[in-house]
Amino acid sequence: MSDALLSMNPAQREAVLYLNGPCLVLAGAGSGKTRVITQKIAYLINECGYDARGIIALTFTNKAAREMAERIQQSVEKKRLKGLTISTFHALGVRFLREEAVHAGLKPGFSILDSTDALGVIQELLATTDKGRLRSVQQQISLWKNALITPDDAEKLAETPDEQDAARVYRSYDATLRAYQSVDFDDLIVMPAKLMSTNDELRERWQRRCRYMLIDEYQDTNVCQYQWVRSLTGLRDMFTAVGDDDQAIYAWRGATIENLAKLPQDYPALRLIKLEQNYRSVATVLDAANQVISRNPNLFGKKLWSTLGKGEPIQVVVMDNEEAEAESVGMRISASRFERNARWKDYAVLYRGNHQGRLFEQTFRELRIPYVIAGGQSFFDKAEIRDIIAYLRIIANEEDDPAFIRAVTTPKRGVGQASLTALGDTATQLNCSLFDAVHDEQAAERIGARQLEPLKVFVDFIRNIQWRAGRGKTDGGAATPAEGASELLDEVMKYIDYERYLYDTQEERAAQSRWQNVLELTNWLKRKAQEDGLTLAQLVQHIALITMLERSEDDEDPDAVRLTTIHASKGLEYPYVHMVGVEEGLLPHLGKDDEYGDANKDAEALEVRIQEERRLMYVGITRAQFHLTLTWCKKRRKAREDLIREPSRFISEMGLESGLKVVVDPFSGMTPKERLVKLKEMLQKKG
Ligand SMILES: Nc1ncnc2c1ncn2[C@@H]1O[C@H](COP(=O)(O)OP(=O)(O)OP(=O)(O)O)[C@@H](O)[C@H]1O
Ligand SMILES: [Mg+2]
């Protein structure tokens, strides 16, 4: 038996060695579920002679996939890892659809719309600018899709006028996407799942290919993912799923814990393995987590224990307001790092909502504390990044109309709204993309030669780049090899002349910081192209995917404090954790806008909501290895109002016996200016 196997506890080992049929590992946080998956992959390859190409491991985020790949590299020879698939569901969906594009009625170069683009399409169809309404329709469509409900079914199911409206939009939305040769994120899962169930030849091919599947964070899969896994593993039922029903935090995205309950029914031979030893956290942290989650009903009783010692008491710090909170957390981290002789990256600040991160970013900058936003979508949501990516998208797929419009109008190159409308009409008439319409005679007639000129220049430039980037070689045709991705990218950037555009349209500081972001993007793209030996065409095809769940920080692991939402921290661990904003109205967060939301109207709905928030709290607490600090503010500003806050119910649910220590913020009662003075004093004292 290998050393790695020897170091596991008997239950973990059983889960790794079990190959007689489907296997489900159900266990609490930090009990080594993810470790079981990595060890099992190593075991399959090293000791059972599995070909890596037949193994598919699915994780929830790109980051988790990367971490898993790194761990496996330590125990399996490189050459035996060739062809191993470790990816997110969505990334596997992209690969599947690129290979099977024809069966899905797509060209291999189809575009992937992110949720903002998709919202744009819905906006056109719904003809409203009411953001709330648009988002609710988008979410409704997404839920339907993921539950495998077709537009026809949706129309039958819809009851209220709003739902009927949404169902109508759903139909045209799907048709529009197909016309654009585009798919949205949901399609990446839904289309493969459907194809697997309707196309026999394709199903058999993939089933032969997939010899063993491993799925992490199983509790957060949705109906469609369940079906897809089910059909992929169809022939042999050879899979291991690991999960924790107490960590299900994506119900709002259509995930259903019922998938866990359904497994034993759908697979009578299922082997269920529970793990109870926690290897991550000290007792104070673990007890608090156990206490909180014990208030939720759960599928299978479980109680975690660890041998890592009692640990320091959990601290609860009361703050005057959110500014004091950010400063105080920054100060505490600086002081603690000094005292414990730790690294910045041993610290994490976890919050409920992305918006809370901003103040921490600003404050940490002032305090000279290095930080990274872990798992934030923020980078790729920035306007400047989306602008540049629009160009790359149009290079990848000229039928991507939304990208075309964005690229051709940013920077302005003399293409006015009237020209675009006329071009749109032409495209509709010819039933082609905006891009292709430019060179049609009709366009010249409608738009006029002078107005058309800048559009032609744009299209010709893109065509030229496409050709040189290696587009259209999937059929093995073209004779000239693709030019280097880096050089081509430079050429595209020069053509866009984005830096000048920024300085022309924005004030200097903003332009500077945006341009920095753009440079970061292009450097990262070049590095990626070089490392993976990609052509520009291949590179741009990956982009939408990377932007999906998080920014791919690649192998960068800077020594910096992690700022992250609790959602994005799932599966990860940090020695010292600060959970901030642990207040009623924030965590639990019960409604969209007002504090207790409309959920309050219905006691049952409210309870469901609180349970989901409690699981989120549980996920947050269990990220901590050695020490946990919770903070809450007596006042928090919202819009222009100061709201009076109460500590979260989850704090009292943790139980004082776990050694809770309540501390009053040292800055209490001070004005911002006084705080700064005191802060400087404290910093000086620390040297
Ligand atoms: N048998 C073991 N011996 C020593 N350390 C272990 C063992 N099993 C797991 N660990 C360590 O415990 C920590 C938690 O493991 P892991 O991340 O696999 O837990 P998990 O169940 O996936 O947690 P989560 O539910 O948060 O995803 C990791 O640092 C891992 O390396
Ligand atoms: Mg895990």
Automatic annotation (TrEMBL):
GO terms for cellular component: cytosol. GO terms for biological process: DNA replication; recombinational repair. Its EC number is 5.6.2.4. Keywords: ATP-binding, DNA replication, DNA-binding, Helicase, Hydrolase, Isomerase, Nucleotide-binding. InterPro entries: DExx_box_DNA_helicase_dom_sf, DNA_helicase_UvrD-like_C, DNA_helicase_UvrD/REP, Helicase_Rep, P-loop_NTPase, UvrD-like_ATP-bd. It comes from the Bacteria. It catalyses: Couples ATP hydrolysis with the unwinding of duplex DNA by translocating in the 3'-5' direction; ATP + H2O = ADP + phosphate + H(+). It holds the Pfam family UvrD-helicase. Residues 283-571 form the UvrD-like helicase C-terminal domain. ATP binds at A27, G28, A29, G30, S31, G32, K33, T34, R280. One of its GO terms (molecular function) is single-stranded DNA binding. Residues 6-282 form the UvrD-like helicase ATP-binding domain. Homodimer. Rep helicase is a single-stranded DNA-dependent ATPase involved in DNA replication; it can initiate unwinding at a nick in the DNA. It binds to the single-stranded DNA and acts in a progressive fashion along the DNA in the 3' to 5' direction. Belongs to the helicase family. UvrD subfamily. This is ATP-dependent DNA helicase Rep. It comes from Advenella kashmirensis W13003.
